[in-house]
Amino acid sequence: MTLQIRPFDLADTEPVVSLWQETGLTRPWNNPYQDISRKLRVQPELFLVAVDGTTLVGTVMAGYDGHRGWLYYLASSPARRGEGIGRRLVERAEELLIDMGCPKVQLMVRTENVEVHDFYASLGFEPFETWNTGKRLIAD
Ligand SMILES: CC(C)(COP(=O)(O)OP(=O)(O)OC[C@H]1O[C@@H](n2cnc3c(N)ncnc32)[C@H](O)[C@@H]1OP(=O)(O)O)[C@@H](O)C(=O)NCCC(=O)NCCS
Questions:
Q1: Ligand 1 test: best mutation among 77, 85, 87, 88, most atoms within 8 Å of CB?
Q2: Which CATH architecture has domain 3-122?
């Protein structure tokens, strides 16, 4: 496998949205095209894709808010699971966050997505209890 991790390019848009749909990461209240467009205006260098040749096989969208680093939209192609694509994406995002001085990275996992718990544990992530809350400011 000649896996390359690189920043997202506009030409990746359709394969990225397809991968998010295929891996169950899209939700009716999140327009993936809007999410991409917003990310391209804020720390676009932290929006990474994994490509094997010309084939897109993974994504991760990271951000640093000055206090914590966050990961979103981590996905690898269902046909390519267990090859280390998810790990490589997270490790590269961590490197970029460390370069920015970010002391801790964290992420939210949807309650029903228990399958990924062991994946994150194998990457050194430790669970912690919070009550999450949010408020939509712009309807898509
Ligand atoms: C989570 C996800 C990105 C993992 O991708 P992947 O490319 O299969 O992961 P890797 O091959 O890099 O695995 C890294 C490690 O986690 C382990 N791992 C991966 N999936 C696992 C699972 N379901 N259960 C237990 N361990 C798992 C691997 O064995 C590997 O361990 P190792 O490095 O010690 O050998 C992928 O399952 C996915 O896209 N899921 C759907 C989308 C999703 O839920 N994203 C997360 C949203 S919070």
A1: 87
A2: 3-Layer(aba) Sandwich (3.40)
